[in-house]
Design a protein that fits this description.
heterodimer, A: 427 residues, alpha/beta, ten-stranded mixed sheet, 9 helices, 20 strands, 38% strand, B: 251 residues, Rossmann fold, four-stranded antiparallel sheet, 10 helices, 12 strands, 39% helix
């Protein structure tokens, strides 16, 4: 990239690459406002504080680098789970591969339909959590997404859903450059589980806005696929009402570049949030970045950030996690752990834990470690007859287990465990 | 069973000789004890037999039933029938004790070309053996040695030994950190495995353990060599007079 070109000029070009969808006036206004914000921010560059450890160039260059399709005979994720399945191919909803958009306790619409209606509840949510999440740290690629994404789902949860909704993002074109924007509103006392899987596209940019009302529960389990050359940037923006629960877990393997932002805000008292991730990275081209920002603006809320990354053959893992406790957010319990397990000397784990606390009656703890596999533990296992490779795999899975344990459902946790075990065998 | 000849071992990372020519022959079904002062090379002997990294064998040999142990990977030694009960059993967070045991048992069976145990078969055997060592179901479910007391860790070692049914058991200071009752329990566990064929090498500082696990032969090790060999009465002599007399006598 030519350094003489300013970041705002690049942002014009990147924005020009997409076509702004045309819908109802309110939606057009939200998109136009987001586009103004994006052009104002400019594209992220390595000089931005929160992109210091991750070069965003692959996410901003035009056109995107192609990504070869990767396939093997492994079945898609969550096949054994009773669910409603919705499929996107290269970021475009494919109804022929999807179940009917019917889930008891929920109404599911497409973003196209919802943003075409003159009157729609999504008017108050679409783009609003994303916009709110632009302070104090700018997330330009999320603004771009709000401005330009034509595809996505708009979901309203009114009751306790018995089945999860599973979105599968299939990558089918080597040059696809996709934007998907999902909006979820979970009303008081309702419950919802969202599953997401798949590589999505050669370059995949997703935004998920989730509003969790008082006493509501949101569970989210996501896997980011095995395509070796995919580029992915995701943003979760969540708002938590009083006594609500928000739990999000992501498993990431392979891919060239993955950046996952999670921006959560507690706005009601006694709520709990967890953002967790288990990552297995292989090879110098693997670069994975979790960036989390949790704002406590209510009393007696608990937040957990649990991230574990296993890295080998020159892979890089990044964690940037922040807990911001505002002056009135007394009795906050904030926990943050990020750990890297390096299987060789060429791999890297970079962590930046941040706490910013203005209240005086809080319990916040954070820890970050990086280390190699415990040779004493290996010797103990091999001395009992366990072959060395199997012993190492056991210890790697044990290392990741703390993050996987954050998933409430045993079936889903088992599914994740099986995939990671299979990944280790595949090499 | 176990034949060690003129074994000389140094540290891999520094120029320090630890074993300076150890000779030891343990026959089928025999129980041998090695006693000796701190730093004499007792634990090193056990680690070198089990195949721990960090040591350089510069001379000599160690054979288990005629097979050269020193050429094998640690897991191959285990499958060949060698077992080391650790002085400090390692804690492994995230790996369930039961999963660990079953993986180990089946890995050894597989290496020996035997049929692996099903979950049901395994459970039946492990429950029975755990009961006699007063290891409850809760301990089996917990991660390997994590949060175990000193006594629980050593009982867990003996449980592994009972499950793996080795031919040659090396117990490295299994009595350290145990109270009298725990020591008895561990000794009973060991004695239950004495069947006239299985051999034992018991490494200890104190004669007390040998009251419970009666040795056929006692060796005194000092400065990297076995300096005296005798019957059980040798252990009593050490208990009464310390090592000084024996060291002086040999010197």
């Amino acid at each position: 990239m030519n350094s003489l070109i300013g970041k705002n000029e690049i942002s014009d070009t990147l924005a020009d690459f997409f076509i702004q969808p045309n819908g109802a006036t309110w939606a057009n206004n939200i998109r136009s406002e987001a586009l103004v914000a994006f052009n104002d921010f400019g594209v992220p560059t390595k000089r931005d504080e929160y992109w210091k450890y991750t070069n965003p160039q692959k996410l901003t260059m035009i056109p995107t680098e192609p990504a070869a399709l990767f396939s093997n005979d492994e079945p898609p994720m969550f096949e054994s789970i009773d669910r409603v399945k919705i499929v996107f191919v290269d970021g475009i909803l494919d109804l022929s591969q999807s179940d009917d958009l019917i889930l008891e306790g929920a109404t599911i619409e497409t973003l196209v339909d919802a943003t075409s209606k003159d009157i729609h509840w999504a008017k108050d949510l679409f783009g609003s959590l994303e916009k709110n999440g632009q302070k104090p740290v700018k997330r330009p690629l999320a603004a771009l997404n709000t401005a330009m994404a034509a595809e996505g789902l708009v979901i309203r949860i009114t009751d306790k859903c018995k089945k999860p909704l599973a979105i599968r993002y299939i990558h089918n074109s080597e040059t696809s450059d996709a934007l998907v924007h999902n909006i979820i509103k979970i009303e008081s006392n309702a419950q919802f589980t969202l599953l997401e899987s798949g590589a999505g596209a050669a370059r995949f940019n997703s935004v998920l806005e989730v509003d969790v009302a008082d006493n509501a529960d949101f569970h989210h389990v996501r896997t980011q696929g095995r395509d070796h050359e995919r580029k992915t940037v995701t943003h979760i923006f969540g708002r938590l009402g009083k006594e609500s629960i928000f739990k999000s877990f992501t498993m990431t393997v392979n891919g060239t570049l993955t950046r996952n932002d999670a921006v959560l805000e507690f706005t009601g008292d006694n709520a709990r949030a967890t953002v967790a991730g288990a990552t297995a990275g292989d090879g110098e081209s693997f670069h994975h970045d979790d960036t989390v920002f949790i704002t406590h603006d209510a009393v007696n809320c608990e937040s957990r950030q649990v991230f574990k990354k296993v890295l080998r053959n020159g892979a890089t893992g990044v964690f940037q996690g922040k807990i911001l406790v505002k002056a009135d957010a007394q009795k906050t319990d904030g926990y943050q752990i990020s750990q890297g397990l390096l299987l060789d000397d060429n791999s890297n784990f970079l962590a930046k834990p941040e706490l910013e606390i203005y209240a005086d009656d809080v319990a916040c703890s954070h820890g970050s470690t990086v280390g190699a596999i415990d040779e004493d533990a290996i010797f103990y296992l091999v001395s009992r007859g366990v072959p060395r490779k199997q012993a190492q795999d056991m210890l790697v899975l044990a290392f990741l287990a703390e993050a996987i344990d954050e998933i409430d459902s045993n079936d889903l946790a088992d599914d994740i465990n099986d995939r990671l075990a299979a990944w280790m065998n595949r090499r | 069973m176990l034949n060690i000849k003129n074994l000389k071992v140094g540290l891999a990372e520094e120029d320090k000789q630890i074993l300076k020519g150890v000779d030891l022959n343990i026959g089928e079904g025999e129980v041998h004890a090695i006693m000796g002062p701190n730093g004499s090379g007792k634990s090193t002997t056990s680690y070198v037999l089990a195949g721990k990294d960090g040591y350089n064998v510069t001379a000599g040999s160690a054979e288990l039933n005629g097979e050269n142990l020193l050429d094998m990977d640690p897991e191959e030694r285990a499958a060949a029938g060698l077992f080391l009960a650790f002085q400090y059993p390692v804690e492994i967070p995230g790996v369930g004790n039961m999963t660990f045991l079953r993986t180990a048992v089946n890995a050894q069976r597989k290496a020996r070309g035997e049929k692996e145990l099903t979950a049901g078969e395994f459970l039946k055997i492990v429950r029975e053996k755990a009961k006699s060592l007063k290891i409850d179901a809760e301990m089996l479910k917990r991660p390997v040695n994590v949060g175990f007391s000193g006594g629980e860790k050593k009982r867990n070692e003996i449980l592994q030994m009972a499950m793996l049914e080795p031919k040659m058991c090396v117990l490295d200071e299994t009595d350290s950190g145990l109270d009298v009752d725990a020591m008895k329990l561990v000794a009973e566990g060991v004695n239950a495995l004495r069947d006239g064929k299985r051999s034992f090498l018991v490494i200890t500082h104190y004669q007390r353990l040998l009251d419970h696990i009666k040795p056929d032969v006692v060796h005194i090790m000092a400065n990297g060599k076995i300096i005296k060999t005798g019957g059980p009465e040798l252990a009593l002599e050490v208990e009464q007079n310390g090592y000084a007399d024996i060291l002086a006598e040999v010197a």
